[in-house]
Amino acid sequence: MEIFFQQVVSGLATGGIYGSVALALVMIYQATDVVNYAQGEMAMFSTYLAWTLLNAGVPYWWAFFGTLVISFVGGVLIERVVIRPVENKPILTIVIVCIGLLVILNSVAGWIYSYIQKPFPSPFPPRPIMLGTVVFGAHDLGAIGVTLVVLAFLYAFFRFTTLGLAMRAAAQNPVSSRLCGIRVGWMLAIGWGLAAMVGAVAGMMVAPIVFLDPNMMAGILIYAFASATLGGFTSPGGAVVGGLIVGVIENLVGTYVHFIGTELKLTVALAMILIVLVFKPSGLFGRAAVHRV
Amino acid sequence: MVLLEARGLEAQYGWTKVLHGIDFAVEEGGITTILGANGAGKTTTLRAVCGMVRTAGEIRFAGQRINGRATEDLVRLGIGHAPEGRGTFVNLTVEENLRLGAYARGGGRSVAQDLERVYGYFPMLAQRKKQPGGTLSGGEQQMLAVARALMLRPRLLLLDEPSLGLAPLVVREIFRIVRTINRDERVSVLLVEQNASVALGLAQHAYLMETGRVVMSGPAAELRQNDAIRRAYLGY
After folding, report:
1. Domain A2-279 has CATH 1.10.3470
2. ipTM rounded to 2 decimals
3. Which residue from A145, A148, A189, A197 is spatially nearest to A171, judged by alpha carbons?
4. CB B103 to CB A181 under 8 A?
5. Which CATH number goes with the domain that contains B171?
């Protein structure tokens, strides 16, 4: 039973990270109808920026928030420079641009920082925390906490601020939004900036576990797709819950189903994507897309 | 004084020209209507004023030339538009829809005052303020569209066929409110309509459009007496 709880908690910790990346995917998807395949590499790149700051001697939380600011600006720039020119092109064009972005960010990171794995510090103390007889890693609990804080912050932003409202409006009905004076293009760019920030948080939380290297987000992005699909691509909260579920299932299946072990874990994520798409394409919390013909 | 004036206004979608050089004017504080059948170019005329289509010719608002300006900037000059199809944000609540109407003015306490003001005109919206816009009936959504445009505190209100698809009683209610707004707040109105009888009852000045051209214009009372209009648009 202890093993079970421990697996659940560490599943929740990695699940929180999948949820964060899924959240970033969902935000961009909702704002622009684009699935950003480069989301993982953007997060990886942000994490390298944090690493650079830390190496320069910047204290952890200064580096953390500094990275968020730089990532936001970077996300806005990517939207303005790379995505904007193909905004109204067919979806395939945008997908290919995103994949191109993925390859470029990956190679540039490898070129600057090399492909050798680097350790990345955790802001949480290394000693484990005992709850009853079960041992939890402080980083695991911290990562869950950080994910929930990010979610709460985004919820408050979209729910209570005028800018958040304008962004939701721009995503839903661009024509009416313009008639209200909303600069729709900028709303999309800000959406990319926020997604880059959320991705940066995920990157900085996952790097202490998987170590920092240019390919560190490749597997995580697939889990994030599974999370977003499970929770529903139209539901930010669902993406996070989906992430937690995927993280826990992944861990439990890896522990208890022996032929899967660690080697076939990624297959579990892909199988989940498939199952959800066949039986409930809108996900657990999503709305079915309705298009007027 | 003339608030809005178009001269030789042309508009096109892609290669298709839809307006072939029309002239019209809206008096400050007045109600002007553009009548015409489906496809006459009425909606395109409003879109041209709001910078939503490519235009040629000249449009002036409060003396400034406004052709080619972005829709978002024209809104900031005080042009409120209740568009064709009502433009409801279907997943946002009624109150959020209204708040968006005031977006261009910046926020602050005045938004709360304006909410009170438009709820005064449309008490039904106050009852439904927590409801998603998409759950409102057609008439209610039309009222929401007008109310959203009013949140801007516009100088000029553009109304695109507010009577379309609505029961006569609802139409009468909406037109009564438009008249009140025009009288009490001195908001100038440019009303596009197929329903000539209600439009001519409300407006002081009217234009009649056919296939992208203005074919007749004059005081509303005069057009109402015109035999051709009576037969074609009023049906008696």
Report:
1. yes
2. 0.91
3. A189
4. yes
5. 3.40.50.300
